[in-house]
Amino acid sequence: MIDLGAGAWVLLGVAAVVIGLSKTAVPASGTIAVAIFAAVLPARQSTGTILLLLILADMIALIAYRRDVNWRALVRLAPAVGVGILLGVAFLAVADDTAVTRVIGVILLVVVAFTLLRRRFGSAAASGRAPRGAAAAYGTLGGFATMVANAAGPVMSMYFLAARMPVKEFLGTAAWFFAIVNISKVPFSVGLGLITPEGLLLDLVLAPIVVAAAIFGRWFAPRLSQRLFERLVVAATLFGALYLLFA
């Protein structure tokens, strides 16, 4: 894995920047990093390698938003997310690299659809309560997506919007949610052989980039043109999903 070409290292560096920004400035954009890692590294191993970088960025987000959290929403989501994670573990236990690559591609397409729906109906969702059964549906899909592809961001963003959370509460609840979920996935990832010594070494190289990007994102978020950036995120994620499906 360390014998990657210069182009691969550049792509992984870009992915590390996206991981940092996704936690402190642009929620749900981390799917771009998922696509890059799955394209550059073996699909199964990419999920374990990127997981540790996501946890690092989660810790920075917790420092920034540690007090702004809706614990009731997290408790409501917990059972369904647990079921989704277990379903993801079962899938990873029997799937090979090709299957994982294709499923990641499909999940990313679903993520794009959720993102587009959020942009189209976001204001309507924010004005009403989350529909009955939303916690079970979004939690299960989010748990499976995060275990298989680390791609639950847009799914959970829609749920948090439907729950009418204010901005700071949204960011704080998301920070705690992903920190708890990602840390809970570590034992499963180790048991499935997704976290490897080579992956840890690669993470050490990329970690400073993630930290720098997360700190920059915290500063840059109020100055960000969210509308334009979301369009770029959708386009890049769609490209990554199609690449994984048909490459």
TrEMBL record:
> Per UniProt, which keywords does this protein have?
Cell membrane, Membrane, Transmembrane, Transmembrane helix, Transport
What does the record say about its membrane topology?
Multi-pass membrane protein
Q: Which Pfam families match?
A: TauE
Regions crossing the membrane: 26-43, 50-67, 73-92, 99-117, 137-162, 174-195, 201-221, 228-246
Q: What is a single cellular component term in the Gene Ontology annotation?
A: plasma membrane
Mainly resides where? membrane
Q: Where in the cell is it found?
A: Cell membrane
Q: Which InterPro entries match?
A: TM_pro_TauE-like, TSUP
Q: Which family does it belong to?
A: Belongs to the 4-toluene sulfonate uptake permease (TSUP) (TC 2.A.102) family.
**Identification of the protein by name:** Probable membrane transporter protein
